[in-house]
Amino acid sequence: MSKTGARRLLMTGAAMAAMAGGGTAVAAPTTAGTIITNQATATYTVNNNTVNAQSDVAQFVVDRKVAFTTVSAQATTTKVAVNDPNVVTSFTITNITNGTQDFLLTPDQTTLSTGILPGSDNFDVSNLRVFVDSNANGQYDADLDRATYIDELAPDTSITVFIVADVGSPPNNPYLAFVSLQAVVAAGGGVNAVGERLVSTDLDLLNREGVEDIVFADNDSDGLGLGDLPRNGQGRASAAYEIATRAVALTVTKTARIVSDGVNLLTPARALPGAIVEYCLVVNNGTALTPATSVVLKDKIPDNTTYVPGSITVGGLGTGNVCVLNGFPQNDDGSNTVGPYTGAFDAANGEVRATIPLLLGLTSLSASFRVTIN
């Protein structure tokens, strides 16, 4: 009998059994490799004597119907922060094969999920790893979850798999990073030893009654043919990391102090014509764990004052909205090569500019410059 014919016969038998049982549950699929035997008996009479005759024994081996599902175990994205290590997404693999299987696991970052998951992948994670839930608690335990493949997953059994990654400091307003898990069915039968990847039996061959054939019956994971196809012994599911905090509580305060007035030496300086005034800009990032990048401060020179050449400093210490320690001196043309900061004076527009490349969370830095009262 051909394999197609055998499948039809088994399906018909199962349907009849279900109707005869009044809707009771159908028995679990027969385990692959099971030998099913049958022998017929004929009875007849010759001259009033009853004679029995037996047929040859017919037997065949139950083939392996390979099927499994790979799905994301998350209803939403995994919320992460910039420079967040060991961020986790979860997946569930269910073995519905009529036999125990190993599964090979591969994590990757992919844009295949665009159109499946909402949004668009626009930043990269690093150090992608995959681990199997060792104690079935559904939580990633770094000290316990060490296995990188699924070992001996019994029929009708599910297991959780984690993708673990690191988030760096991505540029350009990062938002989503799509990752996917690929599961490939492999041979079972050896505890603590990964099996070889299964290969489907050529479906054009006639059914081999004494041999366990392998038939892939898995579906297309996403239904769109993106990264997976039906009956290929593979499954793929997608999840996303989302940088939930994309804005920070950034505040800027400005203070002024009279440095000197050219008249009073022993008493506090006054705001007299010819006095030098120092302006202090203190910028504070009030959001924990989330840095602000490319912070640019701009300040117009006020009327009735003249900018003091070479007076810009950036990256100083600001406390209580006051510059308590000036930063790196800056050339007015922006050509300073000392320190990570830059500053410049735009004479045409009468504007001072200061750039702070990175301002960590819960951190303050300052910029200062001086003018002369006309």
Automatic annotation (TrEMBL):
The keyword Signal applies. InterPro entries: DUF11_rpt, TAT_signal. Residues 1-27 form the signal peptide. This is DUF11 domain-containing protein. The lineage of its organism: Bacteria, Pseudomonadati, Pseudomonadota, Alphaproteobacteria, Sphingomonadales. The keyword DNA damage does not apply. It comes from the Bacteria. Keywords: Signal.
